[in-house]
Structures are given as structure tokens and as C-alpha cells.
């Protein structure tokens, strides 16, 4: 598990406090209060956004190990098992964008390439989540498939939509970002399915996100400038043990 502690301080100047700049003070403290949770959200999303790699360099310049238990990247075509020589893939061949045919292909991948550590097919693993980025076309396509009462690609409106309520659609907007959190259009079409029951994506919180205020810490006011310090703190760890519970397509048509 990779552990991290996030810390950021800001100063509220004497002039802001004495010249009725309360809206600006409020905005600063509100943004500060979101710092830890925003960074946590970004770090979690990067586990999928950088799924093809075993490491990435975060916005602080740190090299983050994001390999799974078999030391491979989360998305791989040669995942190994501890008790068998069998290998499996969890990245969809040719990485198509979300469509009816692609969804059926990734379901077939789930049926044929989901094993336990002894090389036995795990037929009991339910894939109940369809996840996408926030790309409007992909999101709308997912909603059409999951919410339409009839087959959205059928000419007969009376044909039942077999995907109606089959999955819970989860939108993960920060997947399509760079390590610094800026938009990355190369990742806009990422999508996949996952099993919430068998997920091995673990988050451990060892220091709840919180604010340090002048009431909770000593020497919060600078003696020479009268600037009052506020801080945001939080600590957490992230690890993905195995990759069998998630199937991924990059949506870019790559082999």
C-alpha cells in the first residue's frame, strides 16, 4: 500500500481580517478545506487513468508504484496467478469505444477471462458497475443503454433493452487527467465494467481530512506580520491487490 500525507498551509493577512474582506477569507478557507479530499480523489482516479503503467510521477514529482499483486500494471493482457500457470487479460482487445458491440465484447471478456488464483473460472463474480469518464458522448451512450425501455439500436421499438438497469453507471471525471490534474484528451474515452462485491481496490484513511485552525494550534499568528495561519491535513493509503474484478477499454482503437 502506498501511503501519503497531504499538508497545505495558507495565511490570512491582517488587512483581510480588519478591512472586512470576509468573502475572500471565506473563499480561501473553503478551497483549503477541499484540498485533501480533492487530492485523494485525483490519486484514486489515477489508479485507473494510468492503468497501463506500473508507476507514474505525481504532481509533486514522486514516483508512485501502482502495480497490482502480480507486479504488473492494473490493465494487462498477461496477468499471472499464484497457484496456476494460466494467464489472463483484463484489457479489451482493440480497445473500442463504448457501444453495444463493445459492451458485449467486454462482457465476454468477463465471462472467459475471470479466474481465481488456482486458474478456475470465477463464474460467480457479478459485474454490476459500468464506469466511464465524463466525456459527454460516452456518458450519454451509457445512459441510453441503461435507461431506455427498448433496444436503442433496434428498428422495432417493442424489442426489450436487455441492459435496462443491468449496471450502475459510475462517472469518474478525473480519470481523463494528467498527473497534475489537467485535462488529458487521450484518456477521454476510457470505460469498463467492474464488480463492486469482488473489488480489491482498497483505500485506508489513517488521518481524516481536517483543518488546523488558530484555536487548535499554538503560534498560529506570525509575530512580525500578524498573518494567521490555517492548514489542511490528511493521510491515506491506496492499493489494488488483484485485477480480475475490473475490465478496461481505452476507447482509442489501439491493439
Features:
4-stranded mixed β-sheet; alpha+beta; phage-related protein like fold; 3-stranded antiparallel β-sheet; 11 strands; 255 residues
Q: Major sheet: order of its strands? A: 7-6-8-11
Given this structure, which CATH class is correct?
A: Alpha Beta
For the termini, the CA-CA separation is 31 Å
Sheet/helix structural class:
alpha+beta
Number of helices: 5
**Principal-axis shape:** globular
Describe this structure as you would to a colleague:
The chain has helices at residues 14-18, 22-33, 35-49, 100-112, 136-147; strands spanning 2-12, 55-57, 63-65, 79-81, 84-88, 129-132, 168-171, 191-194, 201-212, 228-240, 246-249. It is an alpha+beta fold and 255 residues long. The strands form 4 sheets. The protein has a 4-stranded mixed beta sheet with strand order 7-6-8-11, covered by helices on one side.
Care to give the gist of this entry?
This protein has 255 residues and is an alpha+beta fold. The protein has helices at residues 14-18, 22-33, 35-49, 100-112, 136-147, and strands at 2-12, 55-57, 63-65, 79-81, 84-88, 129-132, 168-171, 191-194, 201-212, 228-240, 246-249.
What secondary-structure arrangement, pairings included, does this model have?
Blueprint: E1 2-12, H1 14-18, H2 22-33, H3 35-49, E2 55-57, E3 63-65, E4 79-81, E5 84-88, H4 100-112, E6 129-132, H5 136-147, E7 168-171, E8 191-194, E9 201-212, E10 228-240, E11 246-249
Parallel strand pairs: 6-7
Antiparallel strand pairs: 1-10, 2-3, 4-5, 6-8, 8-11, 9-10
Amino acid at each position: 500500500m502506498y501511503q501519503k500525507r497531504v499538508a497545505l498551509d495558507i495565511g490570512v493577512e491582517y488587512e483581510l481580517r480588519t478591512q472586512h474582506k470576509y468573502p475572500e477569507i471565506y473563499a480561501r478557507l473553503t478551497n483549503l478545506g477541499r484540498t485533501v479530499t480533492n487530492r485523494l480523489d485525483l490519486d484514486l482516479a489515477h489508479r485507473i487513468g494510468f492503468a497501463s503503467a506500473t508507476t507514474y510521477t505525481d504532481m509533486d514529482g514522486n514516483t508512485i508504484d501502482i502495480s497490482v499483486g502480480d507486479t504488473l500494471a492494473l490493465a494487462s493482457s498477461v496477468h499471472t496467478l499464484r497457484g496456476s500457470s494460466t494467464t489472463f487479460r483484463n484489457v479489451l482487445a482493440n480497445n473500442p469505444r463504448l457501444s453495444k458491440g463493445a459492451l458485449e465484447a467486454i462482457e465476454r471478456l468477463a465471462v472467459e477471462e475471470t479466474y481465481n488464483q488456482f486458474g478456475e473460472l470465477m463464474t460467480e463474480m457479478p459485474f454490476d458497475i459500468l464506469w466511464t469518464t465524463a466525456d459527454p458522448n460516452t456518458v450519454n451512450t451509457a445512459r441510453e443503454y441503461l435507461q431506455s425501455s427498448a433496444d436503442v439500436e433496434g428498428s422495432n421499438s417493442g424489442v426489450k433493452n436487455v441492459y435496462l438497469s443491468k449496471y450502475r453507471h459510475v462517472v469518474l471525471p478525473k480519470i481523463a487527467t494528467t498527473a497534475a490534474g489537467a485535462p488529458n484528451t487521450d484518456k477521454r474515452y476510457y470505460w469498463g465494467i467492474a464488480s463492486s462485491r469482488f473489488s480489491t481496490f482498497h483505500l485506508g484513511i489513517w488521518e481524516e481530512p481536517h483543518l488546523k485552525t488558530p484555536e487548535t494550534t499554538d503560534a498560529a499568528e506570525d509575530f512580525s506580520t500578524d498573518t494567521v495561519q490555517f492548514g489542511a491535513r490528511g493521510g491515506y493509503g491506496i492499493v489494488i491487490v488483484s485485477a480480475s474484478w475490473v475490465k478496461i477499454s481505452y476507447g482509442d482503437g489501439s491493439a
